[in-house]
Automatic annotation (TrEMBL):
It comes from the Bacteria. GO terms for biological process: bacillithiol biosynthetic process. InterPro entries: Glyco_trans_1, Glyco_trans_4-like_N, Glycosyltransferase_grp1, Thiol_BshA. This is N-acetyl-alpha-D-glucosaminyl L-malate synthase BshA. NCBIfam families: thiol_BshA. Signal peptide: none annotated. Residues 186-341 form the Glycosyl transferase family domain. GO terms for molecular function: glycosyltransferase activity. It comes from Pontibacter cellulosilyticus.
Amino acid sequence: MRIGIVCYPTFGGSGVVATELGKELALKGHKVHFITYSQPARLDIFNENLFYHEVYIPTYPLFQYPPYELALASKMVDIVQFEKLDVLHVHYAIPHASAAYMAKQILRTKDINIPVITTLHGTDITLVGKDASFEPVVTFSINQSDGVTAVSDSLRTETYEYFQIEKDIAVIPNFINLEKFRRQKKEHFRMAISPNDEKLLVHTSNFRSVKRVEDVIQIFAEVRRNMPSKLLLVGDGPERPKMEKLCRELQICNDVRFLGKLDAVEEVLSIADLFLMPSEKESFGLAALEAMACEVPVISSNAGGIPELNIDGVTGFTSPVGAVGEMVQNALTILDDANLPRFKASALERAKDFDIGKIVPKYEEFYQKIIDEQ
Ligand code: GMT
């Protein structure tokens, strides 16, 4: 197939999923064309089937807000026509689904019918999408897509709750490349971080308020009172200065490391004992899946789609959002040497259910079904 993929090129979960999907499809022999405003962060391999088309947004003094959506729609029209694409797959509804709708209408005037598939990722529905500023456009463009997928049952349900959707939404969960995300031998790194064999807790996120990084730090401070431990924080975002201040107030700075945005998260996960994800909302929790693939059990909230991934009492524990005390007790249970090996093994077993080799064929089948229906 000749497939167009539209996504955000940044480190966010939706861009990562879109890029990894495109890479895998290219390895399977499909021609994959990425259309976005800069080279996707994980588009880091050369493959003869992979193509990248940059969307340029001309500036003009009149434009307080450069019209990205129009430049994107024009680029889609051009690439669909010139590369004779079979399907356009857009990741994250805003503004990709409405730009694809416009491109589809323009192509119709040229007697070209391009099937559009929209994958919903989470905040495009649960936070940003349902805001009144966007809701009518999001509803319309989802209903106008030829195929719609969501990354969890929970996101599918929430989409039907928040929007008047007439379309079927198929659930295709996120996936993991178990060759990249596996526990590697990094003993020297572990020795440097926890020289006295302290337990290692890890959190990775974009440090937005929805991730409740404050809970991460409060959980860690309590765990640390009970057993020698260290906390590694990967990622960066608006909440970081507040979190640094909190660490100073709690006098735990010597045991907390802010590592910033890292490419090779799997190296940090390879030395971790526990992953923390206390999020307020989380449609899937790709970062938790990455941890589990590296044999790291998860303490999480039970928000959104997390319980579909993190099995309570098996691969970790889930608790109500904000239940910091319960999360501390559960963390101590997992970190007990009598329990830790069992939780680590179960986390890896569960991650295998989301192996890229099992999930990508679901997208291929879905593309074919939507193309055949046209
Ligand atoms: O919240 C993020 O980390 C970014 C956001 C995105 O769109 O990039 O992530 C969403 O999509 C990911 C990939 O499908 C999911 O794993 C995340 O759970 C989801 N985030 C939220 O729902 C808050």
